[in-house]
Structure formats: structure tokens, C-alpha cells
């Protein structure tokens, strides 16, 4: 790259350096020598701290994800067992008993299941749909 005077950047820097007196050169060198280590140490410290924090956050998120996945899995397994047990109740599984049982008896059975579950199941469907 060449500037408007036809000089290369290296030539411009060399010319600038030659025009400075000893006092300015000493000041520039002192400033450079004192700031470079600070910048270097700060940059390296930032890099390693950032990497460490990122790794810790990633590990924590992975642990939380595993915990949540495990809780959901256990909950679904428990609900599946509950569904199988409800489906096997004679009042619902035996066609003869299902026809004989009154809606009140079926409702009472469902109420007992709800009470035993301590609020786990909140039945929002119309009772007529459940008892049909």
C-alpha cells in the first residue's frame, strides 16, 4: 500500500521515528514497554477465565438437562403405570360390570383415584365423557 506521496507504510514509520527527538522516543518506548505486558497478561487472563466460565456453564446446563430429563421420564413412567392400573379396574375393564355400574359408582371410583393421587390428576373432562 502506498500513500499519496508515494511512500510505503514502512518508510512512513521510519521517517516519523527519525523526526522524533530522544525525549519523545524514550517516552514512547517507556509507554510501550509498560502497556504491552499489561495488555498481554490481561488478554491471556481474559481468555482463560472466559474459557473456564463457559465450560462450567456448559457442564451445569448439561447436568440440569439430565436432571430434568430424568424427572420427566420418571413422571411419564409413573403415569403409564397409573393408566394401566385404571384401565384394569374391573368397573371399567369388565364389559358386564361396566354396563351394570351406575354413573355414580364410576364417578365414585374416579373420585377415589383423584383423592389417592393427592391432586396429581385434575379431571377437566366432562364426567359424561369419562363415564360413557
UniProtKB/TrEMBL annotation:
Top-level taxon of the source organism: Bacteria
Source organism of this protein record: Crocosphaera watsonii WH 8501
Transmembrane annotation, as ranges: 28-49
Name of the molecule in the record: Uncharacterized protein
Keywords on record: Membrane, Transmembrane, Transmembrane helix
